[in-house]
Design goal:
Helix content: 25-40%
Number of strands: 19
Distance between the termini: 18 Å
Largest sheet: 9 strands, parallel
Bound molecules: zinc ion
Strand content: 15-25%
Radius of gyration: 21 Å
Shape: globular
Number of helices: 16
Amino acid sequence: MTVPERGELLRAPLFHTPRNPFLQDRALESHGDGGLLIRDGRIAACGDFEAIRGAHPDATTKDLRGGFLLPGLIDTHIHFPQLRVLGGLGRTLLDWLEECALPEEARMADQSYARDIAREFVHALASHGTTTALVFGAHFAAATAALFEAGESCGLRIVAGMVLSDRQLRSELHQTPEAAYRESSNLIRCFHGRGRLLYAVTPRFALSTSEAMLEVCQTLQREHEGLRFQTHLNENPREIAEVIRLFPWAPDYLAVYERFGLGGRGAVMAHNVHTTASELERLAVAGTAIAHCPCSNAALGSGLFALRPHVNAGVRIALGTDVGGGTGFGMLKEALQAYLLQRVAPDGAMLDAAQMLYLATRAGAEALGLEHEIGDFQVGKAADVVYLKPPEGTPLAAVLERTETPEQTLAAIFTLAGAESIREVRVEGTIVYK
Ligand SMILES: [Zn+2]
């Protein structure tokens, strides 16, 4: 029996990064015998179990020792209609779009198909420990609505928008700017700020949007309070060359979005693999975040992300799985891939476990302008929690018998934990996956 006013006290080792480990020492907080007190869906206390137990003797204790508690994972770049094209290896971006992604995205015109994918999609997020995702919807309003509805019924935090394009793709994915404005406005009225849902204006990329379409994006941002924004930036050299050809007045890719006032806090641009010092400086000043998608960058051969220059320039970065150009829904795996690619990148950063955890949690909250609400276990925040416990007999279970420090334990989790280790996922204290 739960006693919500007294709270539920979860007992397990826990980890979180209430500070940015790229900027501050000792950003990782951990408790080997941790206690996380949840009351009315919020974090009421976080620390050593015995101390919290003593201060809150009425709380109902749930003993979860043998596993670990992490903040809910936050995926800042993922495409809902691309679930079933995961695994399309052997191509680069523009060929992959043409041969794998866009034919499947066109199938979203079928509403019942889109509803099936939406259900599979939100289940995949939750079962991998992702509690918040910034999602590219479909090119169709009804399919995008199906995504929001599936997210709502699952209980996840979904930030998403209908994908806007009026050129360069296949004709059935194009809308007129007028229709894009009308349908986006309807979706915003219906879903933005409803429960845990938020709307993000979503031009696919500069390559597939005319100036008139980008003006629509600007108008939507001006007309509605608190919208987020997402798009792609500087992913692949052929893509970049095409963008510059289509917008001859633009000195670089980012300048296309800037011309229409698109960017700033709450805006997330995916990739930025092939960037310039000027673009980094302008992204930092604007507060625009970059969703780094290392699995996708490797799978599509897009290139090696310049992580250190982004950090040095003061650009916000977070992680995205980029399903289906990426390799799956696992944000722990994504953080490991970020580590691996930095190890082989020229002048790569040596990421540590605290930085990996930050990138997979709090950095995403900051990118989305939700750091007051989610991203770590600070008191008062929503209780978005992942309970992770490796199955017996797995290599991770064996390794964790031997780890001695919180950093070693976390590093082992990032290296070896997959969906099979995600046992329970909560959003605002409510179990959304078990
Ligand atoms: Zn993408």
